[in-house]
Design a protein that fits this description.
By secondary structure, the chain is an alpha+beta fold. The chain contains 15 helices and 19 strands. Helix content is 29%, strand content 28%.
Length: 492
């Protein structure tokens, strides 16, 4: 079967995506379309990233500064570009294109490649397929250039440099840039007077390879069909969802848990095949009255062990109102993470599963974000020597390295009445009188000058560990540059 490749190029994909989302009546909107452009911040200024046909008619072009564009066209309307959304939209178009053939791949950031060999007859032939695709894209408000050829390179050249889709498949009269060359090679060929593809085919191949490198010859062979070029199809995104339809409605908690166990076994098998773990699970229970209830489970760590996950559903399932019975159950992992196999040795132990299960149980009651842990931070400033992170999305780190012992409690500095660089023999703190017993220090800590820390404006600090006769073990510091004493922490 002869290979036939269709190239679809969307020259204004980002702007078309935004405009079609805003248009209520696309036909009326297209007739009165005003100049519109998407901008992106580059080289300390906003530049045009993509623009519609009306803006191009005003003399605007990509890469133009936004301020210059508004000087030429005061009526220009602009919005910030979103390349991530554009990529998602192109992927959606690739899935839509599978109505024409199963072999669809992405071509850069604004194009598609289709291998329609064996499927064109379903649309009345190749011409009917291409015409149907053009009509549907036009109704969707998308500007698309479409061409078919025997090779991927020829199809790409016709869509990007062909003047009309009725010109046939001869690419000899197209410029050399149609071979997908880099700008440097294209410029070098132009300077030598080699402007058309026919000029290259008339020269000896050895001369081209010796003067411009093997890439030029490869692109020429790919376009002419001498060298085959593979179209990488768009992979299917794995779907982590399973469903169970019951012959008779159920309503007891034990029956629902039994059904959940069967679903979990199937779902966890899918996750294991893909080396993934579930972070968020949603159990949907459909009742016979067509109503539905959901039980959401957020996990403290990616899991795929059905025996561990099943008990975590008990609290949510117990609160479900079964009504007149549940006849369908659906379990879906809406958030997954890679969970690769790891070797456990005497030097590396596995993460304790009981802690993750406990965090999951508590987190589904008070919220996972409310369960936090302390981790060491790379700073010698006491207030910055630790950080608070969400326990479910972090792992314990250590060890806590410190040249001197640190208090178990740390609070904002509280001033006390004392003078001199040595700890006072007697002082009052929080309306209590203390007598100094044993002292250890000083430990001088300098501020981190590169950070704007208001509490360290007084300069250096000399820290002392003071054991009082009343039994309190306090952490005091003295500021020699702005004399004063403060209490900042308390030891166990």
């Amino acid at each position: 079967m002869r290979k036939r490749v269709v190239s679809v190029w969307f020259p204004r994909l980002p702007s078309d995506r935004v405009l079609r989302a805003r248009a209520v009546d696309r036909t009326a909107f297209a007739a009165t379309q005003s100049p519109f452009a998407l901008t992106q911040h580059e080289k300390n200024t906003d530049r045009i990233y993509c623009l519609n046909h009306a803006a191009e008619a005003q003399g605007l072009h990509r890469g133009m500064g936004l301020s210059d564009a508004r000087a030429y066209c005061p009526a220009l309307e602009s919005r910030p570009a979103n390349p991530t959304a554009d990529a998602r939209f192109l992927t959606m178009l690739a899935r839509w294109s599978k109505r024409y053939c199963p072999w669809v791949g992405l071509d850069g950031r604004d194009g598609l490649m289709l291998n329609i060999a064996g499927s064109a007859h379903l649309f009345g032939g190749e011409a009917g397929l291409l015409e149907d695709m053009r009509a549907r894209l036009a109704r969707a408000g998308l500007t698309g250039h479409i061409a078919a050829a025997n090779t991927r390179g020829a199809a790409w050249a016709l869509t990007h440099f062909g003047t009309s889709h009725k010109d046939g498949e001869d690419i000899a009269g197209l410029p050399v840039a149609a071979l997908r060359l880099d700008p440097k090679t294209d410029t070098a060929l132009q300077r030598l007077g080699l402007r058309l593809i026919s000029d290259l085919t008339a020269l000896p191949r050895a001369t081209l390879a010796r003067r411009f490198g093997p890439d030029l010859v490869l692109r020429l062979d790919q376009a002419m069909g001498t060298q085959d070029e593979v179209i990488s199809p768009l992979g299917e995104t794995p779907h982590y969802g399973v469903r169970l339809t019951l012959p008779e409605p159920i309503g007891l908690r034990d029956d629902v848990m039994a059904g959940t166990a069967r679903l979990l076994e199937r779902l966890c098998a899918k996750l294991k095949d893909q080396d993934m773990g579930a972070r968020r699970l949603i159990l949907t229970l459909r009742r016979v009255d067509q109503g539905a209830q959901q039980v959401e489970l957020r996990l403290a760590a990616p899991m795929r062990e059905a025996a561990r996950v099943l008990p975590l559903f008990e609290r949510g399932v117990a609160e479900v109102d079964a009504g007149f019975g549940i006849d369908q159950m659906r379990l879906e992992a809406t958030q997954v993470e890679p969970l690769l196999k790891s070797q456990i040795t005497h030097a590396t132990a596995a993460r304790p599963e009981g802690l993750d299960d406990l965090i999951t149980r508590l987190g589904n009651r008070i919220g996972l974000d409310n369960i936090q842990r302390f981790l060491p931070a790379d700073s010698h400033i006491p207030e910055r020597s630790f950080k608070r992170v969400v326990a479910a999305y972090s792992a314990p780190e250590g060890p806590w390295v410190s040249l001197r012992p640190r208090p178990i409690r740390l609070f904002a500095p509280e001033p006390i009445s004392a003078t001199g660089p040595r700890p006072p023999e007697r002082f009052r703190w929080r309306n209590m009188s203390f007598t100094t017993g044993h002292v250890t220090g000083p430990e001088r800590i300098a501020p981190e000058w590169w950070l704007p820390e208001d509490t360290w404006r007084t300069g250096l600090r000399d820290y002392w560990k003071v054991d009082t006769t009343q039994g309190r073990r306090l952490w005091l510091f003295y500021t020699p540059q702005n004399p004063g004493w403060f209490v900042q922490g308390e030891f166990a």
